[in-house]
Design a protein that fits this description.
157 residues; alpha+beta; globular
Length: 157
Amino acid sequence: MTYEIMLVRVRPGSTLEETVERLGAGFDSEAEPAPLRLTAAQRAAWERIVSRVARDVGPVDTEEFRYGPTLETVGPPGRVQLDYCGDTATVEVAYCHAGPAARDLMERAYRIARVVEDESGLTGHDFEVDQPVRTGDPARAAARLSGVTDWVRQHVG
């Protein structure tokens, strides 16, 4: 289970909520996703994202999958994963960090999400704590990550 920050391309005249609802309505968990073919503009945005994250956040590994490229941070404080699909993206952090480690990790996750916003034009929102990425407080996200991690450790083991 992961903590997720969602990024989407909001069409003119639509709200973030309408965009997310439209994406959810078209999702079929039983269907095999079609291979992703990024446009030239989306590919250029991905390359800028990778370059900036590596420069501003730290070392990364990238891999291309049939359904889109992925970036993962390397080294402390832990792994943050970015899945990019051109008009959507997701930043994910595993629920296994608490305290200062959670704070450091969520600051990193928000920095990555803000780079994605800057370079791709996507709009990010952290639905876990209901705040926009652009103006949101990573400390709120870290408190949520830490709280869920602690609960899992106490009740699941």
